[in-house]
Specification:
7-stranded mixed β-sheet, 4-stranded antiparallel β-sheet, 11 strands, 47% strand, globular
């Protein structure tokens, strides 16, 4: 079955960097649209960055220019490079995928049907 396992979260100071990874198995990774989402305590889950199977990306305005999503189809792995981190980036970060293609990648959590367990990112001095 579809399995997504996130790693790479942790505690980082403001202005620092982290790279999240999502190891995928149980499906043909290269054909899926994938994305990173986050949820802070008491808030809804929001889209952060998404990439479709053709490599087109889309970012939330709050992370544009600071975060970069990428994927390695040979390694079945999705990445999120996060630079210039801010305290407001603190959240649980989730990897998600969907089997149907969107020409313009969607930042909407409800359209993704496979989810990982999440990795915590805390930005604090």
């Amino acid at each position: 079955q579809v399995q997504l396992v996130e790693s790479g979260g942790g505690l980082v100071q403001p202005g620092g960097s982290l790279r999240l990874s999502c190891a995928a198995s149980g499906f043909t990774f290269s054909t899926y649209d994938m994305g990173w989402f986050r949820q802070a305590p008491g808030k809804e889950r929001d889209g952060v960055a998404v990439i479709n199977s053709r490599g087109t990306t889309n970012y939330a305005g709050s992370v544009q220019g600071r975060f970069t999503i990428s994927k390695d189809n040979a390694k079945n792995t999705l990445y999120l490079q996060m630079n210039s981190l801010k305290p407001e980036d603190t959240a649980m970060y989730y990897c998600a995928g969907k089997s149907w293609f969107s020409n313009s990648p969607l930042l909407l959590p409800h359209v993704y049907n496979s989810w990982g367990q999440g990795t915590q990112v805390t930005v604090s001095s």
